[in-house]
Amino acid sequence: MKGALLVAGTTSDAGKSVVTAGICRWLARQGVRVAPYKAQNMSLNSFVTADGAEIGRAQAMQAQAAGLEPVADMNPILLKPGSDRRSQVVLMGRPLTDVDAMEYGALKDFLRERALESFDRLREAYDVVICEGAGSPAEINLRRGDIANMGLARAANLPVVVVGDIDRGGVFAAFYGTVALLSPEDQALVSGFVVNKFRGAVELLQPGLDTLRGLTGREVYGVLPWLDGLWLDVEDSLALDSRQTVTGTPHGRQTLRVAVVKLPRVSNFTDLDALAGEPGVLVRFVTAPGELDDADLVVLPGSKATVSDLAWLRSTGLADALTARRLPILGICGGYQMLAREIVDEVESKAGHVEGLGLLPVRVRFAEEKRLARPTGQAYGHAVSAYEIHHGVATVESGEPFLDGCTVGAVWGTTWHGALENDDFRRAFLSEVAARAGRDFVPAPGVSFARLREERLDALGDLVERHLDTDALLRLIEKGAPAVPFLPPGA
Length: 491
Known about the structure:
Layout: E1 3-9, H1 16-29, E2 34-37, E3 40-42, E4 46-48, E5 54-56, H2 57-65, E6 77-81, E7 86-91, E8 94-100, H3 101-125, E9 128-132, H4 150-156, E10 160-165, H5 171-180, H6 184-187, E11 190-198, H7 202-216, E12 219-225, E13 244-246, E14 256-261, E15 266-267, H8 273-276, E16 281-286, E17 297-300, E18 302-303, H9 306-316, H10 318-324, E19 329-332, H11 334-338, E20 342-345, E21 352-355, E22 362-373, E23 376-379, E24 382-385, E25 388-396, E26 400-402, E27 405-408, E28 411-414, H12 423-437, H13 449-467, H14 470-479
Parallel strand pairs: 1-9, 1-10, 2-9, 3-6, 10-11, 11-12, 14-16, 14-17, 17-19, 19-28, 20-22
Antiparallel strand pairs: 4-5, 6-7, 7-8, 13-16, 15-18, 20-21, 22-25, 23-24, 26-27, 27-28
Helix pairs in contact: 1-2, 1-13, 5-7
């Protein structure tokens, strides 16, 4: 077979990423050579490919679902917001420039051509390409310069399936409104809908599905049930709003409690997925000093705005709580930089010399060139593989070595993302944390984070196979969008 499909959504975090991954896994299990693609991704969760290119973490996860090593063509344009008004533009895995919304508009034609070149290369190399949209195709204020949604669909003549999150409410209005707001040319490619995160008996939903089909003339390709535990590799911080995860029962007598500071520009919070998958480890995201009181381990995660987020720590009182703390703290990348004695930043914030929290004997200077790498090393006697994405260069002045960083007392810091995915290292680190925190917690033997991720991807493939009309999806991929009626705005 040969073809492509675009998975769009009624909103951000509607489920586009997981549905795309599920379709990729389902097709790969059928022996189809399938690749994921997202023309433009706005996310602070990213990954480094084997050849040193930075792409969205969700596309790396989708590549794994397809049984592939991720490459830059799968996400040619990555936008990394550093503030409410400016973003770093990453093109084909390398930083291109920093822009505001108006400046980005001037780049759109150039970026669209590069994105389509990537798409064409994937279509040439694989049987099927499953594309993920961005936000919603009904963001009509952005339609003229659109690259990732109907702009892509029109340029490549792709059939479009729209995913809606029914758990949020208003999904029928969202489906109908999405189609109604589009031009006739765009509507012609919207083939139908997928309902996501449904709780209850599908029979109760059927009258609404029938009415939607009658109003729009488009099919509902299935209803995906709510399924707990599909939290791996999410790309949108919206998914953190109510996230508190504990998996399984403690192997020792007590749970290990991990508080992750939810920084305003938190990045690569997927680093904590491996902890959340560890039996007996409770992971929660926090924003206030009092929420650290009962934590055995506090994690300062990555940040796209290190100096700005450090100022936020001080304004909230979290900085004082951290410096007064005697129990374990782990800083990763931007969080590690905040733990330093001094930060010199003439690149990201242009703030110059900034005093850090002073918990580690480290000085950080931001470099113009971003470091993108897949390092390997050892810690606690175990091999560690990871990835790096940072402008800040840390100079360690004393302390004990820890990966590429250092540790002093109960404080650890490293620029390495993904280190906790290494099972033996993670267990050794958690054992050390538990000992320092005085908790009777023992990491469960034999837990494999890689296997857990594969199980989650298989679960996504199962959802697609069991709950979607896969024959209809195959027809869309091979034959394109069927003839569907035009739905005038306000009809």
